[in-house]
Model the fold of this input.
Amino acid sequence: MSSGRPRSSSRSALSEAACELFLERGFDATSIGDIAARAGVSRSSFFNYFDSKDAILWSALDDRIAELPAAMAARGTAAALRGLGTGFRPDSLALALMHADAMGLRADLERAAAWRQARIARAVADALIAAGSGAVAAAVAGGAHAAAVLTSIERWALAGPGRTPLSDELETALTIASVTLP
Done:
């Protein structure tokens, strides 16, 4: 039998504590030790759940991105991309996007979003190449679809996450990304 908090409640407590501190002090002025203390866990326990402060904000999306290649192989590229938005709930990322300036992390979010966008683009391009697309067409389509995903998440968060499902915003953006320009 394990002791301490269940994994999901500790992860949740750390995320909540981090967001509170980011709003109070700013991202850069908040240490991992501060977050752990606010959440009531040890600093070393923090690393059982996250590898950085940045990871707190992106963990839900990162989990989905990690599953994307297998999802594309199983369900197809379009369905897997749509699946990224299914059941996505307001979380620390949505809060950070809404309050980026107050938390002092606009530049960090932009950098981190670009890295995730590149990961999605590469996964889509790889799937398209495996399906017979040329490398240039696959790279361009991957980039467009990855931009659609990240743009959807940002627009959803800024509109007030939870007001509408992310999947609605994502569907619109993916449709636009799939349109052939005249």
User: Anything to note?
Assistant: The mean pLDDT is 91. Residues 106-130 form the longest helix (25 residues). The CA atoms of residues 97 and 154 lie 7 Å apart. The radius of gyration is 18 Å.
